[in-house]
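Notes continue from the previous slide.

Worked example: a multi-chain complex. Inputs as given:
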Amino acid sequence: MKRKIWLSAITMNSSGHISPGLWAHPRDESADYTDLEYWTELARTLERGKFDALFLADATGIHDVYRGSADAALAQGVGAPINDPFLVVPAMAVVTDHLGFGITGTVTYEPPYLFARRITTLDHLTKGRIAWNIVTGYLDSAAKGAGLLNQSSHDDRYDVADEYMEVVYKLWEGSWEDDAVVRDKKNRVFADPAKIHKVQHSSKHFQLDAYHLSEPSPQRTPVLFQAGASNRGVDFAAKHAEAVFITGPSKNVVKARVDDVRKRTAALGRDPLATLIITLMTVIPGRTDEEALAKYEDYQRYADLEGALSVFGAWTGIDFSTYDFDAPLEYIESNAIQSRIADFTDDNSRAWTVREVGRFMEIGGPAPIIVGSAERVADELIGWVEETGIDGFNLAYALSPESYIDFVDLVVPELQRRGVYKQDYEASTLRETLRGPGQARLPEDHPGAQFRAAPVQAPQRKIA
Amino acid sequence: MKRKIWLSAITMNSSGHISPGLWAHPRDESADYTDLEYWTELARTLERGKFDALFLADATGIHDVYRGSADAALAQGVGAPINDPFLVVPAMAVVTDHLGFGITGTVTYEPPYLFARRITTLDHLTKGRIAWNIVTGYLDSAAKGAGLLNQSSHDDRYDVADEYMEVVYKLWEGSWEDDAVVRDKKNRVFADPAKIHKVQHSSKHFQLDAYHLSEPSPQRTPVLFQAGASNRGVDFAAKHAEAVFITGPSKNVVKARVDDVRKRTAALGRDPLATLIITLMTVIPGRTDEEALAKYEDYQRYADLEGALSVFGAWTGIDFSTYDFDAPLEYIESNAIQSRIADFTDDNSRAWTVREVGRFMEIGGPAPIIVGSAERVADELIGWVEETGIDGFNLAYALSPESYIDFVDLVVPELQRRGVYKQDYEASTLRETLRGPGQARLPEDHPGAQFRAAPVQAPQRKIA
């Protein structure tokens, strides 16, 4: 194992996340997502377990493919209501010192100028603990909220995203030199204007002629996460991402995706092993295998089939309500649907029914669930790392915060005993947890590095 | 006095705010604005003093009129660098239970759909302590950052703002009925889709066909603040604002503005006395008049003339660097400048010099400074309320947090002794501090109230 296992928890500013229906379990507290205390307690738990980060997913539309309406999603609170992910971070930062925060933000609806300031502000307040999960939006319902008639084509969105990245790199890396702000009280100099540069940008979608509003934060550019699985999405990740979040049902699928990301990253001249790759996983641990299994069976009794189908419907564009739940899908429809299902399940050996598809997705989304004692869980996690080349896991919850408390109490000590997980935090910024102490900034081989401010020796503007 | 004096502190997510240069005073800590602890300590101080709110100003451009560049502003950190105001609020909410937060947000650069979610999220996390200071943007440099060529005309911006308000009213008031979300674990019903309505909106600048992403927060629509001083701005305030923030140099000017706001509010069928009106004020208190005066003289030694002129230059569009600092302006330029100065100073009895203008603005902006013992300060504040009809004050700082600590330790007890200031918090949401317990929502006579969700008796959509 080339480095310690990297761990984040994945959630969303909503109830239930990707375990539809489980909010109704008596011990689940995720329906309290509107309370500050829910978030501060979650953050304390994760920091107690030395988690590297909390990953906040987001969606700016509501699942409305199933039955052609949002009713199934709304009835179970699946993905909606959903609050802003940025605003829980400062509260969690108050009660933690090391936990990183990966925040999902879209490049589709918000001008880069103000978005860049929001990220920099958070990176200041957390002293460098911010990652940005770059998304381009995928729901028509989100486009309609933002005043657009519908989503632009997939590839167009990535073209916009590439331009957007150039603008934010210029703002984060190029506007203020490292020593521009001096806060010299004795000589009454706050900053040296000669070291602060206007960003001038003109491209198809963005025009800019402005200073970045914020002075440099510890990381400047946040750690860049990406989760795109499409061909164009992986290209985008290979170019921009420092960390890639993969979702796959099996080691075969995940390994192929890991290899693909590393190959394409290397082809662009970047260090392929420097990119952190994590995969979605749900862990249900117990003091014994039997206890864990009983817990899993208890959780399953709360799973909501229609909620799961509303999520999978939004992801695939297929309205599963129009099919017999218990008939194999291939007998009533073209194989296109089975092919989509196989993409998510890595199982094309049989014809799935709608009910089977829903059950496959009911806890933790289309990803593996590991159920068992700490020893069994540790064996499995280490096996995943060794056999697929991933660097760690994005852990979904069945119940929140129970799934994380269980993991911290039961699994973390076992991983530590085996030497595959850190005993304590070592780095001070999030990027340093990926790249090592002293590496708080974008590496030289990253495309964002080319937009760094001109050296001090060649000032572009004279001092007033 | 018709009600207790309402108090807020005004600051910005930057150093120095409207006391340019005073960041360099040895006891000033405002240059630590990038630290969470700066904000949590400030919030604790204000709550200790039973302040109603912290008001966060904002600007999304940099003052660049003085000398035709941003150098003077950047050198003293005047208005820039400036971080996002929303993101310090959740941190302060963790350490307080009652303090309200007035946040400046522009309607010019961000789609209403996502902005509405950000406000609702904060209102949830603070349990109903959010006000929104509605601005339409005023700096060309901000427009250039957002990718616009320059600011649209003043009146156009208010037309856009009126449309924007209609969209956010529909999202906040009309999308989710009060009892739509039930969180009924026993029956496994999170929400009733029949009580959740799509917002459909089509106007010149905004198209929308979407649910509000967030369930209703304690106040739904945040308390609406407005600070527009122009004719069109006051009309906008009369229509939408529940609280108006006035800046004026003298009781005469402030009283005329108070009367104007109340008259125009009444003309629109709203209760004119229900609108809270506060004015900008700086207070420098001491245990004695002499101590206070010595403190004031000490502060003045740190004031930065060019910083003050860069602020006033941005507000007026006048580049004061082109004039002799010590020559009366009327001798070298048309009286238009003196007329602009008189607007800010209420003094057209003499020809001002540039240096005098700068000094007038050097601590706390173009507003009065009260210097003296607690008794003198209390006399003055009460006089302002009685003679102008205002309801309270937005207190600028000379030094932060010193100005607020001094006010809380010295002035608050005196105001309490005189019975003009609350002994303790009584209301649980911010709107209730304006309107009284039980009044957490927009009043019936407010234009936003007409967009409330249809009554439950007449569902618009059937349950799944």
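Summary box: Residues 456-464 of chain B have pLDDT under 50 and may be disordered. The longest strand of chain B covers residues 276-286.
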